[in-house]
Write a structure and sequence with these properties.
Number of helices: 7
Number of strands: 0
Helix content: over 70%
Shape: globular
Largest sheet: none
Bound molecules: fe (ii) ion
Order of helices and strands: HHHHHHH
């Protein structure tokens, strides 16, 4: 009797988590809040600028797919309630980022990355592993991820070079919220990750961003 109750619980949870993955990868995400780009008029973009902006936004969308998986993995592995709360709050903002960036890719006439399921699986495993290391390392991993995302988004703002104000407004809006996630993790007691770990994360991110720009 006891065993079947636990099995049932695990099955329910498994289905719920699998559903989350499917919705991230295959669903049409719907944002809860309006996009920061909504009120910004569309520039008259040259074809190559439009294609470049679409590719940058495909990379950002891919990053948001990873964020969903990282948060999911970390929450699954964590037993601390305040971490779970912080993760759930940030994940709901990230869900809007996912929807906004998918929408912007489409507006620019681009398509989403074909490699998203691969990055999702890798990020889920990475998030779970970080979650198993305990509260302060888990938060440290989160803070470092958000810090690197902030820098990466700044790189995209620079690469747009003043063209495409609508995409820029969106990236700046997301960047502000990533900084908020980082500050939350720091306030909850994030540890500073050792430099080799930070370097490894930068390398993995570079691989992901380079491939998803094209594929
Ligand atoms: Fe995000
Ligand atoms: Fe974030």
């Amino acid at each position: 009797m006891e065993i079947s109750r636990y099995t049932r619980f695990d099955l329910d949870r498994g289905i719920l988590e699998f559903d989350k993955a499917l919705r991230t990868l295959a669903g049409e995400p719907v944002a809860r809040r309006p996009s920061p780009a909504e009120a910004v008029p569309e520039d008259n973009l040259r074809e190559e600028v439009r294609r470049h902006a679409a590719a940058l936004m495909r990379v950002n969308h891919c990053g948001e797919v990873c964020a969903q998986a990282l948060y999911q993995g970390q929450a699954l592995a964590s037993s601390s309630e305040d971490i779970k709360d912080a993760l759930a709050r940030a994940a709901s903002e990230e869900a809007d980022h996912l929807a906004w960036s998918a929408q912007r890719v489409r507006e620019l006439g681009g398509r989403l990355s074909l490699l998203n399921p691969l990055w999702y699986a890798g990020s889920l495993a990475l998030g779970y592993a970080a979650g198993r290391l305990g509260k302060r390392w888990n938060l440290g991993f989160l803070a470092e991820t958000e810090r690197q995302v902030e820098q990466h988004l700044q790189g995209h703002i620079d690469r747009l070079g003043g063209r495409d104000a609508k995409t820029r407004a969106l990236i700046e809006g997301m960047q502000r919220e990533e900084a908020g996630h980082r500050r939350t993790a720091e306030a909850l007691g994030a540890r500073n990750l050792p430099e080799p770990a930070r370097r490894g994360m930068r390398l993995a991110a570079r691989l992901m961003t380079t491939l998803s720009y094209w594929i």
